[in-house]
């Protein structure tokens, strides 16, 4: 099955609640590549690339995030895969 790529931007209480590290752990558990970062506007942005079911599961997980997070908005954009390997917190 061909890889897919999704870019996710979440807002709310998503910084200072281990959102990035929790996303990294979830991505590795699901064998999804990509990265996650805090943005200057207080949101979190992530790119996920891998098997469609794994990526979809991770995208769904980001709708709620870790226990202390509160996700107010959740935007997902489909992109062409670029061959990401590994998963980084940047």
From TrEMBL:
Top-level taxon of origin: Bacteria
Query: Which ranges of the sequence are coiled-coil?
Result: none
| EC number(s) stated in the UniProt entry for this protein | 3.6.1.7
- Where is each Acylphosphatase-like domain found? 5-90
Q: Which UniProt keywords apply?
A: Hydrolase
Instruction: Enumerate the active-site residues.
Output: 20, 38
Q: Which reaction does this chain catalyze?
A: an acyl phosphate + H2O = a carboxylate + phosphate + H(+)
Q: Which PANTHER family match?
A: ACYLPHOSPHATASE
| Record-stated family | Belongs to the acylphosphatase family.
Q: What is the protein name stated in its UniProt record?
A: acylphosphatase
Recall the taxonomic lineage recorded for the source organism.
Answer: Bacteria, Bacillati, Actinomycetota, Actinomycetes, Propionibacteriales
């Amino acid at each position: 099955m061909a890889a897919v790529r999704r870019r996710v931007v979440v807002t709310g209480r998503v910084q200072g609640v281990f959102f990035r590290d929790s996303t990294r752990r979830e991505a590795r558990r699901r064998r999804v590549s990509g990265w996650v970062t805090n943005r200057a506007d207080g949101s979190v942005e992530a790119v996920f690339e891998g098997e469609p079911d794994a990526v979809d599961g991770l995208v769904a997980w980001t709708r709620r995030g870790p226990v202390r997070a509160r996700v107010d908005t959740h935007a997902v954009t489909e992109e062409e895969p670029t061959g990401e390997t590994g998963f980084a917190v940047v």
